[in-house]
Amino acid sequence: MKLRLLCGLLLVTLLSACVRPLAAQPHDESAAPRNKLFYIGLALYSESWSAYDVTDLADELRQTASFEVVPMIASNFASRQARYPAADTATINRITHTVAERAGPGDLVLLHISTHGGRGVLASKIGNREPTTLPGSTLARLLEPLATHRTVIIISACYSGSLIGNLSSPDRIIIAAARADRSSFGCAAGNRHTFFGEAELHAFAQPNQSLHQAFTAIRADVAQMEQENDYTPSEPQVSVGANVEELYDAPLF
Asked: Number of H helices and number of E strands within the chain?
């Protein structure tokens, strides 16, 4: 009789637990939505290093970033055009407007460009077509929809520091692979990455990094590769807007 009574009490207890209201369950903070990182990757030149600098960093950020990464990639590398749209001005314009409409106050935009460059211009080459130039002033116009969004612009190209003046704004952090009067290296045909692109992957693979820490690591890594090859230092540059100084030092990745 006692055994039956104990079994009955146990059954009542279990049934009570099963019908406990959902509101009484502990809150799972890990289920809260994360802020988004809109990754705009532009492989402007039709060679492998341009494409992989852009796509491999997107893959790395998916693994390490504290944000939910939303990749939006355009590539002029011929063998990848079946997967990505061409990185022409129409596509860039469409992507920037889409991101501007979707990005919220807590989100971050990261624009990553890999290509050849000259003073004040970037090179664009789609497949086997003749190369053209994308002036810094034109790029600035294409990026106008993002003007009020927190944006990080990373440009891997020779003389890329010469574009900082056109692109600077209070809400932007701009990282350039070289001084305004210097070349960057590693863009030989068939290479998977440039020196700068390889250094980026190493830096962003480290957890709990700020952009400041990542840039410091990239600059040191690039300098070492250049020294080993007896190249003139490219001296990567950074420009931090007045409204995003705290963002530059925050552990984002």
From this structure: 8, 9
Query: CA-to-CA distance for 77 and 48, rounded, in angstroms?
Result: 7
Contact between residue 195 and residue 222 where contact means Cβ atoms under 8 Å apart: yes
Spatial distance between the Cα atoms of 220 and 214, rounded to a whole number of angstroms: 10
Q: Which tokens hold the place of 251?
A: 């552990």
CATH number for the segment(s) 34-249: 3.40.50.1460
pLDDT tens-digit readout, 43-56: 999 999 999 999 99
Do residues 113 and 197 touch, judged by C-beta distance below 8 A?
no
Strand partners, 124: 132
Residue 221 CB coordination number (10 Å)? 19
Q: Where are the domains of the chain?
A: 34-249
Phi, psi of 114 (to 5 degrees): -130, 125
**Cβ-proximal residues to 19 (8 Å cutoff; 6+ apart), any chain:** none
The whole-angstrom distance between residue 234's C-alpha and the CA centroid of its chain comes to 21
Give percent above pLDDT 70 in the chain: 85
Contact between 171 and 153 (Cβ < 8 Å): no
The pTM score is: 0.86
